[in-house]
Amino acid sequence: MRLLFSDQTRLLVLVVVCAVLWSLESLIPLNQYAKERFRRVLPNVALTILLVITNLLLSLGSAQLAALVQEKQFGIFPQFKLSYWMVLLFGIMALDLFGYLAHFLLHKSWLGWQFHRVHHSEPEVNVTTAFRQHPGETIWRMLWQVLAVVVFGVPLEVVAVYLTLSALNAQLEHANIRVNAPLDRWLRLIVVTPNMHKVHHSRAQFQTDTNYSNIFSIWDRLFGTYTSTIDLRTLRYGLDGFDDNRKQTLPALLKLPFIL
Ligand SMILES: [Zn+2]
Ligand SMILES: [Zn+2]
Questions:
Q1: Cα of 128 to ligand 2 centre, how many Å?
Q2: pLDDT at 1 over 80
Q3: For residue 81, what are the CA distances in angstroms to 87, 89, 140?
Q4: Whose atoms come closest to the Cα of 103: which ligand?
Q5: How far is the CA of 127 from the centre of ligand 2 (A)?
Q6: Whole-number Å distance between alpha carbons of 37 and 171
Q7: Is 244 helix (H, G, I), strand (E, B) or coil?
Q8: Which ligand is nearest to the CA of 211?
Q9: How far apart, in Å, are the Cα atoms of 52 and each of 56, 59, 115, 131, 235?
Q10: Distances in whole angstroms, Cα of residue 11 to Cα of each of 6, 44, 51, 161, 235
Q11: How does pLDDT run across 235-256, given as a tens digit for each residue?
Q12: Could you say which ligand is closest to the alpha carbon of residue 197?
């Protein structure tokens, strides 16, 4: 299997897509946000840089493990004679299922929520919210990716493709852009769309506790956590008690998991 995405290529693609979505947020905004756009997203940009560094550091170990899994033919997939495309499709689905479980547990465990509320305390969801994630959450998510690799025997190249697709969709679903409603409804039959993920960022917990899926919307439908279209104009993002600007700085967000 030869589908090589170097870290540099992936990073470049993500930066370009981010720039395009950032521009679209000015042209076709879903919500009108307060001014000082650049200053307000700085903590998210810093967290994104931390995410990249944490991922690079952790990937050194996880890549070795994935290579070992491949060499020893561990996991479910190598036990069957699957074609290249089947391994690619099932591998992406397996990683996405474990991504769903990792996300669900971030909401349902006390410790998980301490970390994950960094992501949900964003009062103005936009493209930079995609990687507004505490390094502790990055480690948690990577553990689940490693688990999926070991259980299913997902090749390293498939992990690289999955991470690229996942990051691209994360940027799209957080972007503050208006999406044609019928188009969104069609797309969400398969993938998580911007309008679908926005519901998950609602301040109302009964909405937050739905739409956990990452790339494929099937997991929410399958596990009964799916919320279909709601009126996005009435949706309020963020968490109560986190609207104060002093709680939105980088040091405050990094300390957040350790504040009881
Ligand atoms: Zn969440
Ligand atoms: Zn989100």
A1: 10
A2: no
A3: 10, 14, 32
A4: 1
A5: 10
A6: 17
A7: coil
A8: 1
A9: 6, 10, 17, 9, 31
A10: 9, 16, 12, 13, 32
A11: 999 999 998 889 999 999 999 9
A12: 2
Q: How far is CA 25 from CA 41, 42, 176, 196, 210, in A?
A: 13, 17, 5, 17, 25
Map residue 177 onto helix, strand or coil: strand
Structure confidence at residue 2 (pLDDT): 47
d(CA 116, CA 62): 22
Take residue 11 and report the two structure tokens written for it. Answer: 């990073």
Q: How far away, in angstroms, is 200 Cα from ligand 1 center?
A: 7
Structure tokens at 56: 């690079």
CA of 238 to the centre of ligand 2 (A): 11
Ligand 2 center to residue 172 CA distance, Å? 10
pLDDT band for position 88 (cuts 50, 70, 90):
very high
Q: Which residues are CB-neighbours of 54 under 8 A, at least 6 positions away?
A: 135, 138, 139
Look at residue 210 and give its three-state secondary structure.
coil
Q: How confident is the model at residue 233 (pLDDT cuts 50, 70, 90)?
A: confident
3-state secondary structure (DSSP) of residue 29: strand
Find tokens 């690229």 and name the residue: 164
Confidence (pTM): 0.92
Assess contact for 104 and 224: CB atoms under 8 A. Answer: no
Q: Tokens for 9?
A: 């290529």
From the CA of 207, how far away is ligand 1's center (Å)? 11
CA of 48 from ligand 2 middle (Å) equals: 13
Distance CA 209, CA 202 (A): 9
Percent of the chain with pLDDT over 90: 73
Token pair 């991504």 is at which residue? 99
